[in-house]
Amino acid sequence: xxxxxxxxxxxxxxxxxxxxxxxxxxxxxxxxxxxxxxxxxxxxxxxxxxxxxxxxxxxxxxxxxxxxxxxxxxxxxxxxxxxxxxxxxxxxxxxxxxxxxxxxxxxxxxxxxxxxxxxxxxxxxxxxxxxxxxxxxxxxxxxxxxxxxxxxxxxxxxxxxxxxxxxxxxxxxxxxxxxxxxxxxxxxxxxxxxxxxxxxxxxxxxxxxxxxxxxxxxxxxxxxxxxxxxxxxxxxxxxxxxxxxxxxxxxxxxxxxxxxxxxxxxxxxxxxxxxxxxxxxxxxxxxxxxxxxxxxxxxxxxxxxxxxxxxxxxxxxxxxxxxxxxxxxxxxxxxxxxxxxxxxxxxxxxxxxxxxxxxxxxxxxxxxxxxxxxxxxxxxxxxxxxxxxxxxxxxxxxxxxxxxxxxxxxxxxxxxxxxxxxxxxxxxxxxxxxxxxxxxxxxxxxxxxxxxxxxxxxxxxxxxxxxxxxxxxxxxxxxxxxxxxxxxxxxxxxxxxxxxxxxxxxxxxxxxxxxxxxxxxxxxxxxxxxxxxxxxxxxxxxxxxxxxxxxxxxxxxxxxxxxxxxxxxxxxxxxxxxxxxxxxxxxxxxxxxxxxxxxxxxxxxxxxxxxxxxxxxxxxxxxxxxxxxxxxxxxxxxxxxxxxxxxxxxxxxxxxxxxxxxxxxxxxxxx
Length: 671
Ligand code: SPV
Ligand code: MG
Description:
- By secondary structure, this protein is of the alpha/beta class.
- Sulfopyruvate binds near residues 606, 627 and 628.
């Protein structure tokens, strides 16, 4: 690709402004001349070959171009009769340099926005810039357009015409035809044919293949006189002050991001919204870098004017505060879960006259690899263990879902629900004694030994990254519990919950139907203290579970235990109930919170399942555990399938309730 810039004209209409240098060197902003702006854009686009025709002040022009020190190879061609001919003859003079290549042709007094130039460069066919937003100019170029193609270009056409500017992209064959016509004009011996526009030669070509490229109301204008200069300079100032907004959630910047930022920065002052940690966690994964570091990362990228926090997936708050003229995004949100966010952005923008610019979204393969590396990083014991405390600090209230195998772990890890432009997923996993035992066909009576329970954790850990809360039953003998704590901590488990029972433990949901003994407060406090002393990192949490309400020992007993266990060092208190009515849970939380506002409270709403997470949060609950729903839904489905096959003597009938194999395979990622 070559660029031809026509700079042989005298520019006499500029008056004293062109008394010492050619028009293209006219200053248009604090930092640019017409030419420096053009050349910088050309260099930024990665084009290096420029042919520049010159005339008056040619040595001034050459020195100026060299002083710009841009990575360009500029060939200067002087039109020796610049004062007696028009640019058709300048092109003719340069013909030997105009290689067999696609070209960008522009007049040297043309000022245009970056995006107009981008569109011209991206055009797959030959094109000329026109505007559907401008009125037909009296004296300047107009293009006659029929059947979507440019038929004629000149100042004399008004029918079927659009305002046009001499900025072209010409594919090799189309350019060759035009150049041949120019050569024929200039060699015809007719003086007039050296003084006319090059477009007069273009108009004679029958089978032109140039399409109009509509720059609408964007800046693309020639400067012919001081009035034009004032208008263009004002527009440039406006463009420079335009606010552009983009939002990022990433903690790994790759070349695709940089290219997008570079593009967006060319539209004005680029403000980047960095998504808060909480917002990232809600729809993606735990960020490897916290918000402050991600913010600093963007602040140090060239072209970024300012970085702000975006607290939610919704742009609304930031758009209403910042009122950016333009929002930039990849076109990937036109459909899919981000569509409601996009719809909201377009309506907020419409409310104050902002606009949305979307660039084709390209998923970088490199990113896939980085993403999988970051996932494995997140699954390392140290990273995983600490994330429960972090999630609690970040969100206040978190959710955990039961997992009892690698497969159920993957379901907890990957299930996402999109609503109102946001996304919801579980924060952690609960390795339940009930479900772990049930999966092994055993009763929930601490029969499945710790080695087997650790094996389950290991299976889950191998394929997931979310923090794990382990159901430690009674914790066993204090002498054994300290070893369990160390093992769990080493594995990367974030929290163990032990219940204040002693002797043969049975599942709490049996309540008083079976004989169960609650541990004495001092004994259980001792177990907590021993566990806390045994752990090696500050991340690991020991939660004390109170069975007083299950065993009908009363609210006072539950509260006495809660305060004693917290005093003994418990990092959290779990209060359990098997009543459908949440009243006793609410009463406990209220009374506990009246004296202790910080120790996290955990609930397992299997029975009192009408309460929403939002209400729990409002009442001061910090962890909501869905303790057994995957087991309880999976098990009947399996039973049903088994029955169906027996009833029908074949498997066809149960196909409808089976997950297709391709979906199962998709659920399990390959490394
Ligand atoms: C479990 O899931 O194993 C529990 C909770 O301990 S509950 O079954 O409600 O007792
Ligand atoms: Mg249990």
